[in-house]
Specification:
Blueprint: H1 2-20, E1 31-32, E2 36-38, E3 44-46, E4 52-59, E5 63-70, E6 78-81, E7 93-96, E8 102-105, E9 112-114, E10 123-126, E11 132-135, E12 141-144, E13 152-153, E14 158-160, E15 164-170, E16 174-184, E17 191-195, E18 204-205, E19 213-217, E20 224-228, E21 231-235, E22 244-250, E23 256-262, E24 270-274, E25 290-294, E26 299-303, E27 307-309, E28 319-321, E29 335-341, E30 343-345, E31 352-356, H2 361-370, E32 376-380, E33 383-387, E34 394-396, E35 404-411, H3 415-421, H4 425-452, H5 454-458, E36 480-481, H6 484-490, E37 497-500, E38 504-513, E39 516-525, H7 533-544, E40 554-560, E41 563-569, H8 576-580, H9 589-609, E42 624-626, E43 632-634, H10 639-642, H11 674-689, H12 705-708, H13 710-719, H14 731-734, H15 737-750, H16 761-768, H17 778-781
Parallel strand pairs: 25-34, 36-40
Antiparallel strand pairs: 1-10, 2-7, 3-4, 4-5, 5-6, 7-8, 8-9, 10-11, 11-12, 13-22, 14-19, 15-16, 16-17, 17-18, 19-20, 20-21, 22-23, 23-24, 25-26, 27-28, 29-35, 30-34, 31-33, 32-33, 32-35, 37-38, 38-39, 39-41, 40-41, 42-43
Helix pairs in contact: 9-11, 9-16, 11-15
Length: 795
């Protein structure tokens, strides 16, 4: 096996070397219109010094990234790519067209990926600083790779507020977008490292809030710093001599480091500065429930007692509990507490339950066992802090006088399990033989049944029974439980009413948690179906397992007698509906796009990425809330399942909201994720057009029949070839019309009456981001034979 791996590594090393060392004729200072490169043809465009190359960079699987790399060193380190998430196959081309577009084209023209907008480009140039630029006839820069960084920044490059770097998924094996992000935040000027999928507030930051700053990588000195107007406000590194290559990269380990490589006789990249000195201080470096240890250079991931790896071949993906904690039939006698010395679980306001002061280790164990909602705790000298699932950032701490211990609650093996472990090998052999014989008999009878009853099988439902996830029984989650009295006091007797929705009334309040004041929103459920306590807790825990930046976070619940309430983090900026349709100035086009993509990513998580699939059933602007920074977060997900006995059929009580409701709701058809796709399509058009789906208050001279219903109006304008009429008064959108046009076509795909023809949410995101082309929707094709594509993007 080891020999095979070495051969594979050698093969890819030779391919990389041959592919990048092919055509090294000196590239002209200006690359003229009509020039092109082909992947696999050993060609690139070099900078005048030959330090950098632009072209096709081979990656695992025989594909290529259109990128920029250091060309004079053996490592050929990649610093930028245009298609990191969609590698190009062999024989793809990049063309600097006679029209001035730089276009990546896959074989046979199957996919076109415009790198830039056409802006009177006359030539291109690969510069000695690693920047690839497109220029006009006066040598002015119209487009540059420095403005669209991936994971690396080079000397001479800057980051402005709002720009981000994303790590690779897996070093030099997988260059696609990874888990970690470096962002120069546009709302406060703080530079932050975060694990962005977990709504991570950041594990490293520059504390430059409330400043208008720019990140500078000085080309002369090698210093990296933040500049507030003209004066440095945060310095990061030291002076670097000119005889070194330099780069700063956010890595798949979550660290941001500056590296140097000696130009003459250099052998490797050396780190000269790093944001994080202790690898285990990177949030979620080992995933949910993971345990991190390090040698101060690299992090190693494993699982704590009572947990198993989600993927044994990749421990950094995290762990899952080996046995669930059942709060309905909870008995402390069925559990034990394992103590791990010099181990810490990072404090988190969402997972920390209770701080018990002036206690000892036995008192901490007792508190952990007595509360079914606790799964772990940390003990620090005399303080015990209990935690619920899912916790992050368990890590080995350095031995010190300030003793930190982690306590983990795990089920005790039953007598049956113990006796099963003592069976001798003879019994196991007999059991295996029995299982084998039973399996053979079952297969034989199944074959007979199929042979004699083929017609009956053909008429059975094609929809397979959902098979349980491997971890379906191990991913229970312990949410914070509240008494009705606690929530009544927190909301001032439920007097601070925020609004009334389809599932109940929402009130604002304040809770004191761990010496912090947490603003909350409490939803009093009013249409809860008659069900047992166990069923209610099961559905609530499914909601509580979700963890995504674009979902409203469930903090806990109340289940006192007939009172059933859910407690959420308060979203101070209200609903998207109020923000989008207010009479004040409409949101900027870029902000609308950012909100749209956030909602799409949240829905993708619910449909495909969380442990138990969740169909929202009522996607609309009123159910999207905005946090302090106007980040979009989907609310009320999981409530349709909680308040409805059978989600596979329609209900007279819950059928979504008129206008957003998919046609299959009215046909007694099974409910699938495609009902959410339809609703999202309607909302997509509302967001990009900044108007409601049904507009009954039109200006009288504009009140045409097709204008009243937004989807019909957009479709009519597309069929007439006059889509610009929809946004004729929005100059900002008209200046971004190609992007608007593409998004409108995605919306029309989503609202197709036939759910089979609607795209999945994953494909919706790919179309919105310009990763794949947007074909003409069938609704448009029904009226026109025009065959063209609304292409990928100017992103």
């Amino acid at each position: 096996m080891a020999a095979t791996i070495k051969v594979v590594i050698l093969f890819w090393s030779l391919l990389l070397a041959s592919s990048l060392h092919g055509s090294h004729a000196k590239t002209p200072a200006n690359i003229t219109l009509g020039s092109s490169l082909t992947s696999g043809a050993n060609s690139s465009w070099l900078s005048p010094s030959g330090d950098f190359a632009f072209g096709f960079y081979p990656v695992a699987g025989g594909s290529f990234l259109l990128g920029i790399w250091f060309d004079k060193i053996p490592q050929r380190t990649l610093v930028w790519s245009a298609n990191r998430d969609t590698p190009a196959p062999i024989r793809s081309t990049v063309n600097l067209t006679l029209d001035g577009e730089l276009v990546l084209i896959y074989p046979n023209g199957s996919t076109k990926y415009p790198i830039n907008e056409s802006k009177s480009v006359s030539s291109a140039s690969m510069q000695d600083d690693g920047n690839f630029v497109l220029k006009n006839s006066s040598s002015g820069v119209l487009w540059q790779s420095f403005s669209y960084p991936t994971d690396t920044i080079l000397p001479g490059q800057t980051l402005t507020m709002g720009q981000k770097l994303y790590s690779n998924a897996n070093g030099t094996v997988d260059y696609s977008t990874g888990r970690f992000m470096l962002e120069l935040q546009d709302f406060d000027g703080n530079m932050v490292l975060s694990e962005y999928r977990f709504a991570d507030p950041g594990y490293w930051y520059t504390a430059t809030e409330n400043q208008k700053v720019t990140f500078v990588f000085n080309q002369t000195s090698g210093f990296m710093y933040l500049v507030n107007q003209s004066s440095p406000t945060y310095n990061m590194t030291r002076y670097i001599p000119k005889d070194y290559y330099q780069r700063a990269t956010i890595e798949d380990s979550g660290n941001f480091q500056q590296y140097v490589y000696r130009k003459q006789n250099g052998t490797m990249w050396e780190s000269v500065w790093k944001a994080i000195t202790e690898p285990c201080f990177v949030n979620a470096i080992c995933g949910v429930y993971g345990f991190c240890t390090s040698d101060n250079r690299t992090a190693s991931c494993s699982c704590l007692n009572g947990f198993s790896p989600l993927d044994p071949s990749n421990p950094s993906k995290g762990c899952s509990p080996q046995s669930p904690i059942d709060c309905v039939d909870y008995d402390p006698m069925n559990y034990q507490v394992i103590v791990k010395d010099d181990t810490d679980i990072l404090n988190n306001v969402f997972t920390d339950l209770e701080r018990i002061r002036n206690t000892d280790i036995e008192g901490c164990k007792k508190a952990l066992l007595e509360n079914c909602n606790t799964v772990a705790a940390t003990f620090n000298n005399t303080d015990c802090l209990t935690k619920r699932m899912p916790f992050l950032n368990a890590r080995k701490s350095s031995p010190s006088t300030n003793v930190i211990k982690a306590l983990i609650k795990v089920p005790i093996r039953t007598n049956r399990e113990k006796s099963a472990g003592k069976k001798n090998s003879h019994s196991r052999v007999l059991m295996q033989v029995g299982i084998l014989m039973t399996t053979l008999l079952a297969l034989m009878f199944a074959a007979i049944a199929i042979y004699y009853h083929p017609v009956g099988l053909r008429h059975r439902s094609r929809k397979p029974s959902p098979s349980p996830s491997p971890n379906a029984n191990t991913m229970e989650i312990s949410l914070r439980t509240f008494s009705f009295q606690e929530l009544s006091e927190a909301t001032n007797g439920f007097s601070n009413r925020l609004g009334r929705g389809d599932f109940g009334t929402v009130y604002s309040g304040v809770l004191s948690l761990e010496d912090k004041q947490i603003e909350i929103a409490v939803k009093k459920l009013e249409k809860v179906i008659e069900q047992g306590e166990k069923e209610f807790l099961t559905e609530v825990r499914v909601i509580g397992q979700t963890h995504h930046k674009n979902l409203v976070r469930l903090l806990g619940f109340c289940n006192d007698d007939s009172h059933r309430l859910l407690v959420y983090d308060l979203m101070k900026n209200g609903s998207l509906s109020s923000f989008l349709f207010s009479e004040e100035e409409r949101p900027s086009w870029d902000h609308r796009v950012e909100i749209l993509l956030g909602i799409a990513r949240g829905l993708l998580y619910l449909h495909e990425e969380c442990e138990t699939q969740i169909i929202h059933c009522d996607i609309k602007p009123q159910n999207v809330l905005l946090d302090n920074h106007y980040t979009a977060k989907i609310a009320d997900f999981g409530l349709a399942k909680l308040l409805m006995k059978d989600q596979t059929r329609t209900s007279t009580n819950i059928r979504g909201t008129m206008g957003y409701m998919a046609p299959e709701w009215l046909k007694n058809a099974p409910v699938t994720t495609k009902v959410d796709i339809y609703s999202f399509g309607v909302m997509l058009l509302e967001i990009i057009c900044c108007r409601r789906h049904i507009e009954l208050n039109q200006i009288e001279e504009e009140a045409e029949e097709d204008n009243l219903i937004l989807t019909d109006w957009v479709l009519s304008c597309v069929r007439l070839g006059r889509l610009e009429m929809v946004m004729r008064y929005d100059t900002e959108v008209l200046s971004n019309f190609k992007r608007f046009e593409r998004m409108a076509m995605v919306g029309l795909w989503c609202v197709h009456p036939d759910p089979i023809l609607r795209p999945s949410m994953k494909k919706v995101i790919q179309m919105l981001e310009g990763m794949i082309e947007v074909g003409v929707p069938p609704l448009v094709c029904a009226q026109t034979s025009e065959d063209h594509f609304y292409g990928t993007s100017e992103m």
